[in-house]
Amino acid sequence: QVQLVESGGGLVQAGESLRLSCVASGIAFRNYGVEWYRQAPGKQRELVASLTTGGVYIRYADSVKGRFTISRDNAKNTAFLQMNNPKPEDTGVYYCNTTPRRAWGQGTQVTVSS
User: Fold this and answer.
1) Contact indicator for 12, 2 with CB cutoff of 8 Å
2) Is residue 38 helix, strand or coil?
3) In whole angstroms, what separates CA 26 from the centre of its chain?
4) What are phi and psi of 20, to 5 degrees?
5) Which residues pair with 78 in a beta bridge?
6) pLDDT tens-digit map of 59-103
7) Measured distance CA(43)–CA(15) in Å, rounded
8) How far is CA 72 from CA 12, 46, 63, in A?
9) Is 97 exposed, middle or buried (0-12, 13-18, 19+ CB in 10 A)?
10) Which one of 20, 52, 85, 106 has the lowest number of neighbouring Cβ atoms within 10 Å?
């Protein structure tokens, strides 16, 4: 059974960095691309960042370019989202997933106060 477990969220002030983690189990993680999404209250889930299996191709939403960094550690079946200089508009529940997508995990709440 495939599981994706996100962690690392919390309440931070604007500008205070945090790093999200996503541990995958039940799959050969290295064979799949990884994506981070977020869902703000009352809004649709949106793609924040994506990373291919070999880490060659990386994409970011325009709203987070230059502030967020996606990475992965295949040996630990883990993906990361480094959030630098977060803003209040980055508040939401953050989810990871593979490509192709699987069942969603529970996500991790990020709240950025001004």
Assistant:
1) no
2) strand
3) 19
4) -95, 145
5) 23, 73
6) 999 999 999 999 999 999 999 999 999 999 999 999 999 999 999
7) 23
8) 23, 20, 21
9) buried
10) 106
Cα distance between residue 76 and residue 61, in whole Å: 26
Q: Which residue spans within 26-107 are E strands per DSSP?
A: 33-39, 46-51, 58-60, 68-73, 78-83, 92-99
Element of type H or E holding 55: none
Q: Tell me the three state secondary structure of residue 91.
A: coil
Tokens at 94, concatenated: 């953050």
Q: How many CA atoms lie within 13 A of 96 on its CB side?
A: 31
Judged on CB neighbours under 10 Å (0-12, 13-18, 19+), 84 is middle
